[in-house]
Amino acid sequence: MINHKRKDITEYSSCVIHDNCLKLSGLAYMSVPIPSIKDISKLKFFYGFKYLWNPKVYDKIFDKLDLTKTYKNPKKLKVLDLYPGVGVQSAVFYNRYCPKQYSLIEKRSSLYKFLRAQYEESPLQILKKDPYDWSTYSNLIDEERIFVPEIQTSNHINDSFLTVANVTGEGSEGLIMQWLSCIGNKNWLYRFGKVKMLLWMPSTTARKLLARAGTHSRSKCSVVREAFTDTKLIAISDADELEKFDSQCLNEWDPIVFSAADMWPTKGKPIALVEMDPIDFDFDVENWDYVTRHLMILKRTPLSTVMDSLGHGGQQYFNSRITNKDLLKKCPIDLTNDEFIYLTRLFAEWPFKPDILLDFVDMYQTEHSG
Fold this sequence. Notes:
- There is one protein chain.
- By secondary structure, this protein is an alpha/beta fold.
- The protein has helices at residues 37-40, 55-65, 88-97, 109-119, 134-143, 172-185, 203-209, 220-228, 247-253, 285-297, 303-306, 314-321, 337-349, and strands at 23-24, 27-28, 51-52, 78-82, 101-105, 125-127, 157-166, 194-202, 229-236, 256-257, 263-264, 271-278.
- Helix 6 (172-185) runs parallel beside helix 8 (220-228).
- The longest helix has 14 residues, at 172-185.
C-alpha cells in the first residue's frame, strides 16, 4: 500500500518531474527523495558493485532511452529493479515516469537498510529478497502475488513491464548468460512476453556481450545475445574503453560517457549500461544451443576440421552438406548469427546426430578466454 505521507516536492527541485506525474490517483504527487553522494559515501559495503549516483547523468540517459516510445502510458507500468543498491536510479526513474508499481529487490544487509531509511515513506516498494535465487520470482509473482506483470503477445515489447538490474560485481557474466538463455526459452520473466531490460555491468562484460563476429572478444555470450536480443550500449564510465568496442556500432549507438567521479565507489573497473530488447527467432533452441556451445569451445579452429566436435562422423556429414565451401574456411569466432542458424538446421537434419539430452558439456566453457 502506498504511503502518501511524503515530503513536499519543492525540497527536491533537482528531480525531473513530468506533467503527467503531478497527480496520482487524484492526490497531489510528491516526489521521491534522491540520496546525496554525502549519504552514499558513508556506506562501507557495496559488495563489489558500483552505482551511478549523479541524477544529472541519469537524466541524460533517460532522455536518450526515450522510454515513452515503448511505455506510452507509464501509469500502467510495473518496474522490477534487481540489485538497486543505493536507489538513485530508482528514485530518478520514479520521479520522471510515475509507474504504477516500482519494486526494488535487495537482500544485501547494508544496502537494504539504506533503502529502508531513504524510502520507507515513499511509493517505492522495497523487498528483502535475493535476485539471484530463482525461487524469489515464483514467490513474488505466483505465490505471494506481490508483483504480477501483465502477459502480452510477442509481436511487441511488453509496454507494461520493465526490468532494470545492476550486476556490476565480479562474476556477473554467468548470471547474464542465464538471463539471456531465459529469453530463448521464454521462461523466468520472459514468460510475460518481450520484456525490456536495462542492465548495468562491468565494461569488460559489455564488450564481450556486444562483440561482433570476427572480433577478438567474440564469445558464446555475444552469440547468444545476437540470437535472442537487440542490445545497445547506452552509457559507459570511461571514454578510453570505447576504443575496445566496434567503431561501427559506436557510431550507431552514440553512448553517453560519464566520469568515474559520477559513480560510487569511484575506484576499480569502469561500468556500462546496455538496453536489451528480446527479438523474434524461428530456430530450434535446444539444437542451436548444442551447436553453438560445442563450436565455440574451439572457436579459433576452422569448420573444415572442427565439426566432429558435434558428434562422431560430423565432419564428413557437414562437409557434404555445406554448399558454400568458403564457410568451411571460417572459424566459429567468425560466424554470424545467420550462419549458426544454418548449421543448426543442417544438424537437425543429420540422421545420426547425437542425443543432445545426454550432453554434459559446460555451456559457459569456451576456448581460451571464453
